[in-house]
Amino acid sequence: MSEYITVSYLTEAKDLYKKAEAIAVGMTVGSWTDLPLARQEVLAPYLGTVGSVTITEEKDGLQQGIIAIQYPTGNITPDIPALLTTVFGKLSMDGKIKLVDIDFPPSLLARFPGPKFGIAGIRELVDVHDRPLLMSIFKSCLGLPLGELETQFAAQIEGGVDLVKDDEIFFVDDKAPLAERLAAYNRIIETAGRPVLYAANLTGPVHQLVDKAKYAIERGANCLLLNVLPYGFDILHRLAEDPDISVPLMAHPAMAGAFYAADEYGIASSLLLGKLMRLAGADLILYPSPYGSVALDRTEALAIAEHARSSNGVHKSAFPVPSAGIHPGLVAKLYEDFGTDVIVNAGGGVHGHPNGTADGARAFRAAIDAVVQGQTLAEGAKSSQPLALALEKWGSA
Amino acid sequence: MSEYITVSYLTEAKDLYKKAEAIAVGMTVGSWTDLPLARQEVLAPYLGTVGSVTITEEKDGLQQGIIAIQYPTGNITPDIPALLTTVFGKLSMDGKIKLVDIDFPPSLLARFPGPKFGIAGIRELVDVHDRPLLMSIFKSCLGLPLGELETQFAAQIEGGVDLVKDDEIFFVDDKAPLAERLAAYNRIIETAGRPVLYAANLTGPVHQLVDKAKYAIERGANCLLLNVLPYGFDILHRLAEDPDISVPLMAHPAMAGAFYAADEYGIASSLLLGKLMRLAGADLILYPSPYGSVALDRTEALAIAEHARSSNGVHKSAFPVPSAGIHPGLVAKLYEDFGTDVIVNAGGGVHGHPNGTADGARAFRAAIDAVVQGQTLAEGAKSSQPLALALEKWGSA
Q1: What does residue B4 show for φ and ψ, rounded to 5 degrees?
Q2: How many CB atoms neighbour CB A145 within 10 A?
């Protein structure tokens, strides 16, 4: 029996149903009604069909709404380039249209790797099971000598973060090469006496990234950061499916706004950063929080977390990491919105603390401990001077 | 002496100059005025600067316009993932902003491969020097047995096309595997007794595409088609720079609309499909023509051709292939807009000819011959029954 991928588009047309039919045929077998019967028999298994048409508005003679097209799974190889080319290749250039969702049958899901560690696996690695994790970002990396980066790293660890990530623009690292950073940071982690994940930025030619990842792991990397969209989803998939890449993969959303930011074009953030990132194998998914200046629409931000964490029957869950603009005063709100299985991630909100980086991290840890115990942040601040100072500086939401 | 990449963005802000300054600092060293002098000295070579600010409109307290930021070339490794992450990673998610252009110093250009064959090289390969080339697209590929594809291929060759390309959604080719297609089509080309390029769709895991390309070439491929954006620009770069990949690379624009279609977000088509495709090594660049139903803005379509063909002091030129909606009646217009160094590319405009595919190609060849000789299409149709029939069906522009 044929199985289908159901693809939803937000679009407009004089007659939305006719447009849906044209897409179903045009994006699969090309033409249909004018084909001889014998050809129709050959091509029937490849023909797309209209799943549904929902008109949400009609004005100026145009119907706007969501159309769902069913593409036979047999039309694609199980990889994201084939998927995106098939369902949004030509179509992306054909007037107002936004790719908003894709539903996969379990048989196709199973041919994608999904997260290797997932939320449970990452909790094992950092040995933290009952609270949101805390991650911090280097204030900056580019151009800094290794010694200064070590100082930054040590301060973050001292304050109690569970994960640290490289700046995503850290490509030129001649002053602090990857192998040297790994050695230096691992010494600091060892001294701290507790597990900390350090996400090293994976860079270089795309066809060598699998080897580069293995090189990093041999030199002590315990997590890898990837700019998934600039490199293309498929390399994430190939890293995730490789059994020798034995560390979690952290997906950075660099360039994602170029896809999702327009209302009427592109690809919805929940699909791009939620479903597709998880499918391709991200253990941790960074994306704009709904709070900061680089903010994502709240519904979309929650949908990304939903796609990352909810059961899809096949894959492990991925950790949502709603980022940007996070300070300790937002932790209660963040916990309310995202629950326990979330990573609190901050850069300026850690380093900008009045007492510096280590107390910045302590303020976050105190805020997390407070909300998990059902306290308000103000209550938590009574037993944490760092949190009290942070709330004084940033307020609370 | 430092060199800079100059990156232009279309954006808006209360104070556009302040926004430009914030981007210049925020996207490079992170912070500046609050840094101690010693740190400023270390980081100065990495600091971005404001090149220019051009306000085009002020309304509702917002300035709209173009800001140009200068990024030191030393901030990036010479690859497109590093470039795009650095200049549009976080920034793409930061409100209304569109990446409209990037100017590269020659020293950086020289570190990208550019086209291996270019226009002159492709003209040598097909031995056509004085007219636009003619390319045709299979009516459809997916699901068809090899025999039917051979029939389609032979008809296109018989009619006189210079290049034929696979359908870009041709991923599942179990009924006509790559090696078998190559063998069959090459027999047809040999029989025809003149050189024809066949662009075979390059598919598979991204980290294996270099090997897959070599496999195809060993089995007779003389041109390769790549869905560059779904795979990511970097694999095009790696294919282009590999000396053993001795055939032209044809870039398909699948998914490009997700980047360029919105006015206020994403990446301009002239940069995406013109400059970056050429930089990364496309010999032939497909993109929406300004004529058809899947149409691109005329200025942008001409700018892509300009970026593909004009001297940049370093790279060979690339063939622009403005596609979609092309029929023989558009050839005069196309020649007027794009000149001789263009590829006339059609699918429906070839196969939809009243007499079928071969005459469809003949009609195009007659139209091309006519305009190159300074004749009107109507004049050309006097000595070409296929062209006369085509003009009758489609009219002329």
Answers
A1: -130, 145
A2: 10
pLDDT for the residue numbered A294:
67
| Contact between chains at A207 and B237 (C-beta distance less than 8 A) | no
Q: pLDDT grade, residue B228 (50/70/90)?
A: very high
Q: How many angstroms separate the CA atoms of B238 and A249, rounded?
A: 23
Out of A27-31, B7-11, B243-247, B356-360, least confident range: A27-31
What's the CATH number for B4-109? 3.30.70.150
Domain limits of chain A?
4-109, 118-394
Treating both helix axes as pointing N-terminal to C-terminal, what angle do A233-241 and A80-88 enclose, rounded to 10 degrees? 150
Q: Is B118-394 the same fold as B4-109?
A: no
Contacts of A162 (CB under 8 A, 6+ apart): A126, A128, A133, A134, A135, A196, A197, A343
Q: What are phi and psi of A219, to 5 degrees?
A: -95, 15
Tell me if chain B has a CB within 8 Å of the CB of A46. yes
- Using the Cβ of B77 and the Cβ atoms of chain A, whether some distance falls under 8 Å is answered with yes
pLDDT of residue B299: 93
> Å from A373 to nearest chain B CA?
34
Question: What string of DSSP letters covers A128-157?
Answer: --SS-EEEEE-S--TT--HHHHHHHHHHHH
Facing residue for B207 by CB, picked from A43, A75, A207:
A207
CATH for B118-394, options being 3.20.20.70, 1.10.3720.10, 3.40.50.880, 3.20.20.110: 3.20.20.110
Catalytic, A90? Answer yes
User: Interface pTM (ipTM) of the complex?
Assistant: 0.97
Structure-token pair, residue A354: 């009045």
**How do strand A249-252 and strand A197-201 relate by DSSP bridges?**
unpaired
A36 part of contact set with chain B, CB < 8 Å: no
Query: Which bin fits B17, alpha (ψ -120 to 50), beta or left (φ > 0)?
Result: alpha
Q: Is B54 helix (H, G, I), strand (E, B) or coil?
A: strand
The strand pairing partners of A320, in sequence order, are A285
pLDDT, mean of each 10-residue run, chain A (397 residues): 90 97 94 88 95 96 97 97 98 96 97 98 98 94 94 96 97 96 98 97 98 98 98 98 98 98 97 98 97 84 97 96 95 97 96 96 98 97 98 94
Torsion of CA A152, A154, A159, A160, to 10 degrees: 120
